[in-house]
């Protein structure tokens, strides 16, 4: 398999010069999963040989390097350390995707405090336990409608296309206040934007989605309803606390964060159950009482965030026994941390009875995912309803033909052929 090139770089490598230890070998990165069911084997090798923090290429030029952090303790420290900046606007900071000048998305996920906390607090009340509980019935209704549609499809059917990919888009459309008549457009543009297959097509869909959200924000400011966009428009945009571009950035973040994790996690969790009948029986027994525990373990096991968290050291510091210099780029490996045997014994096995409270799929520290309660609700309701409706659900392809999506940012499935 051809190894992909580095998928992030710096704004202007000439503006910052990383301190390079020429005595340390540079690893060939990104790593590739040799087995689709496991993280790349290099992560385990690195964790076993201190120092576990190592150099990797960070851009098109050989002098641009980054540190790769793989152990659970080191990853947790990097996520929580205020000296690790997430601000992509800082000269030399690593960025995920290069867009044309002036078109980079505004997202508080890629900001530091105080601006990060100021924008983040504007949607904090949307994801409280009380508000998420209030979404139980609407989410269940969307699930039931999708399963009705799945039942009417010819068999075999693609569970990703018919169910796991559509549910998060519909939930977020409802959360944002997208009119029912525009659901199809919203879902389609979201799917294409996040496909990561054809960059030009994805970017065109991204621009369509941005224009749509901008127009929706202006409509909600004049005719508010009971939804997130209306509350942002009337409470914050109308008062000048944010402008329309910042509002669109917040909405876009809610969309991307809420879609990718939930879509891929539902599909991969279903796959885990279909591949292991004993596990399925264990999880679904007693009306699915172990489904929440299984989902937490599934998130730890699959660790779909593919070294997607980037930081930059703002001052000299030590991490994992390695000295880093101000301006150094850092790649944080969630798969490495979640498969650290020092934290999770026998990590390559799904164990629904293990303590998963320290898994890092949702992050840690100030950038911990606000939408985690909603995603958990969607996944739990989806898994229970799917197997209740289709108790005979089974995989309709050989294990070696399962279409895994080896994308650079989020791991997942391009499809899941099933029958019943």
From TrEMBL:
<protein>
    <submittedName>
        <fullName>Cytochrome P450</fullName>
    </submittedName>
</protein>
<dbReference type="InterPro" id="IPR002397">
    <property type="entry name" value="Cyt_P450_B"/>
</dbReference>
<keyword id="KW-0479">Metal-binding</keyword>
<dbReference type="GO" id="GO:0005506">
    <property type="term" value="F:iron ion binding"/>
</dbReference>
<comment type="similarity">
    <text>Belongs to the cytochrome P450 family.</text>
</comment>
<feature type="region of interest" description="Disordered">
    <location>
        <begin position="81"/>
        <end position="109"/>
    </location>
</feature>
<dbReference type="Pfam" id="PF00067">
    <property type="entry name" value="p450"/>
</dbReference>
<keyword id="KW-0560">Oxidoreductase</keyword>
<dbReference type="GO" id="GO:0004497">
    <property type="term" value="F:monooxygenase activity"/>
</dbReference>
<dbReference type="InterPro" id="IPR001128">
    <property type="entry name" value="Cyt_P450"/>
</dbReference>
<dbReference type="GO" id="GO:0020037">
    <property type="term" value="F:heme binding"/>
</dbReference>
<dbReference type="InterPro" id="IPR036396">
    <property type="entry name" value="Cyt_P450_sf"/>
</dbReference>
<keyword id="KW-0408">Iron</keyword>
<keyword id="KW-0349">Heme</keyword>
<dbReference type="GO" id="GO:0016705">
    <property type="term" value="F:oxidoreductase activity, acting on paired donors, with incorporation or reduction of molecular oxygen"/>
</dbReference>
<keyword id="KW-0503">Monooxygenase</keyword>
